[in-house]
Amino acid sequence: MDPYEYNNLSPLDKNKKQESVVKFEDATETIKQDETITQVEISGQLENKSDRDKNNESWFDHIIDLRKQIIKGAIVFVTLFIIVFSTINFWFPLISRGHNLIILGPLEVIKSYTSISVTLSLGLSLPFICNFLWQFAKPGLYEKEQKFIGLYSPIMLILFVIGLLFGYFVVNPMSYQFLINLGEMNFDIMVTATDYINFLIMTTVPIGLLFELPIVALFLSSMGILTATKMKNVRKWSYLCMAVVSALISPPDFISQLLILIPMIGLYEISIFIVRKAEGKRATSSPITEAH
Asked: What pTM did the predictor assign?
C-alpha cells in the first residue's frame, strides 16, 4: 500500500510538483512579458510610421503649396511678357534713346526684342513674385522675421526702382557716351541692337540690386548676424570688394566704375547708420522687456 494514500504525494514529489508549478508560472510570466514587449514594439513602430506619414504629408503639402505659388508667378510673368512684347513698338524709343542701332540678321530682331521684353516683364512681375513667395514662406518664419519682411518689402521695391532709374538716367548714358567717344578716335562705330540692349541691362539691373544693401544689412542686424561695429571694422575691405564688384558689373572705363562705386560707398555708410540706430532702439527697449 501507498503510505501516503492514493491521492497523496510524498514530500519529494510535492517539492518536484511545486518546482514545476513555479517553472510553469515563470514561463507564463516570461511569455506575457514577451507579448507585452512585442505589443509595445508594434505600437511604437505604428507610431513611428504614423509620424513618418505625417511628415511625408507635410512635405508633400509644402511642395504642392510652393508649386501653386510658382505657377501663379509664372502666369503673371507670361501675361506681362505678352503685353510688353506686343506693345514694343510704342515704348522701344525710350530704350534706344534715339541711337542709330543696326541689325545684323533677321533672327537678331527677335533676340533683341525678347531679351528686353523678358527683362522688363521680370522687373514688373517681381513685386507679385515676391508676394507669392512671401505667402509660401510666411508660416515657417518667426514673428520677428514676418514683421521685418512685411514692413520693409515696399521699401525694398522702392530702392530697387531707384537703383534702376539711377542706372538708366545717369550711369548708362554717361558710360555709353564715354565709350562711343573713345572708340570714334580710331574706329567707325556701329552699335548693334543686341549689344546695346545687353549694355543697358548690365548698367541698370545690377545697380538696382545694389541699392538693396541697407535693407539687407538691417535684416542681418535684426537676426544678430551683423553689427555696426563689425561693419566699421571691415570698412576698408568692404570698399575694396565694392571696387571689384563695380569693375565687374560696369563697362571697362573708369568713369562708369566711379559712377557705380560712389553710390555703393554711400549706401554702405547709410547701412552703418541705419544699423547703429536699430541697435540703439533695441538697447533702449531691452530693459523694459526684461522688467516685464
From this structure: 0.66
